[in-house]
Amino acid sequence: MADVADYTPNVAVITGSAQGIGKAIALRLAEDGFAVVVSDLGTKQDKMDALVEEVRSKGGRAVAIPTDVTKEADIINLVDKTVEEFGGLDVMIANAGIGNASTFLEMSVELYDLIMNVNARGVMLCYKYAAQQMVKQKRGGRILGASSVLGKQSAGMYLAAYSASKFAVRGLTQSLAQEMAPHKVTVNAYCPGCIITDMVDNPALDATVGTGAPGGFIKYITGIPLDGPEAGPDVVASYVSYLCKPEAHFITGQSLSVCGGVRLS
Ligand SMILES: NC(=O)c1ccc[n+]([C@@H]2O[C@H](COP(=O)([O-])OP(=O)(O)OC[C@H]3O[C@@H](n4cnc5c(N)ncnc54)[C@H](O)[C@@H]3O)[C@@H](O)[C@H]2O)c1
User: Fold this and answer.
1) Are 165 and 191 found together in one domain?
2) In terms of domains, do 51 and 91 share one?
3) Helices (H), the chain
4) pLDDT at 5
5) What domain of life is recorded for the organism (predicted)?
């Protein structure tokens, strides 16, 4: 097992970081002193550039590398360019994800494949190429993936594909954690509950439940109390920040829920 001295936190890549939880993680890791690689779909270039500027304006180091996590060549490019730019890769946050609702009986194969491609295959590719780079570097590392409380227990009848993809993230996380232990690389997942971001903010649907507050519809279909605890992306970012510190070397293969206690595991 790694000890504190076996890992030098320096360079972090965060996928899906143009907004939401990924953006909060990028800002937090930049504050912690990491050079950050902001990565998202090319369609979000403006948001990525704005985030890079925000980090730099506070004295941090950042670049944007557009990446579609479903494309293997993009992930190879992401790792290679990161190493070229900052001299290595110490932290990979495989955060990019999508959600889409359908009943199981009406779920198309196309919808299932789309969600699995981004949420599970995308995480597998990020894990694989980051791990290969970290083994080569011989200076330890941190690999994290975005699961969900729905990756521990399904909820409602609309999110089967999403739930399956997030269960997959936990399986990938446990497997890679075992394989990477000798290389001083820890591998963990974070499992948010309902965090208010664009992913859960559906004004038209939210208006149909409770007070119409953001996230209401997702809470309703996943069985989370409408009046339950609320949080923004920072609560996930602070947990990720801790796991990326040298002192967190003894935590690996775990998937911790960050959900205000609405699900216990
Ligand atoms: N918000 C929540 O309540 C919640 C709960 C549980 C898990 N999560 C997970 O946390 C992660 C971040 O979610 P968020 O709430 O910030 O969502 P978000 O929709 O605000 O951000 C997700 C980002 O991923 C990017 N993305 C989508 N497909 C991509 C692809 N193929 N390649 C690269 N980037 C891609 C999007 O462009 C977007 O910027 C996701 O994996 C999500 O499933 C979120």
Assistant:
1) yes
2) yes
3) 20-31, 45-57, 72-86, 109-116, 122-137, 160-180, 203-206, 216-222, 234-243
4) 55
5) Eukaryota
- Work out the pLDDT band at 157, boundaries 50, 70, 90: confident
The verdict on residue 264 lying in a domain is: no
222 lines ligand 1 (CB under 6 A): no
Residue 96 CA to its chain's centroid (Å): 6
Gap from CA of 136 to ligand 1 centroid (Å): 29
pLDDT digits (tens, 9 = 90+) for 47-82: 999 999 999 999 999 999 999 999 999 999 999 999
How far is residue 92 CA from its own chain's centroid?
Answer: 9
Specify the residue with its C-alpha closest to ligand 1, atom 38.
16
pLDDT exceeds cutoff 90 at 2: no
From the CA of 138, how far away is ligand 1's center (Å)? 30
Same domain for 29 and 49? Answer: yes
Average pLDDT, the chain: 96
Q: Are residues 101 and 208 in the same domain?
A: no
pLDDT the model gives residue 1: 47
Domain that holds residue 212: 201-230
pLDDT in the model for residue 179: 98
Asked whether 41 lines ligand 1 (CB < 6 A), one says yes
87 and 26 both lie in a single domain: yes
Query: Do residues 14 and 71 both lie within one domain?
Result: yes
Q: Give the residue numbers annotated as catalytic, written as ranges.
A: 162, 166
Do 80 and 126 fall within a single domain?
Answer: yes
CA 178 – ligand 1 centroid, Å? 26
| 110 lies in the same domain as 36 | yes
**In this structure, how many other beta carbons lie within 10 angstroms of the beta carbon of residue 183?**
18
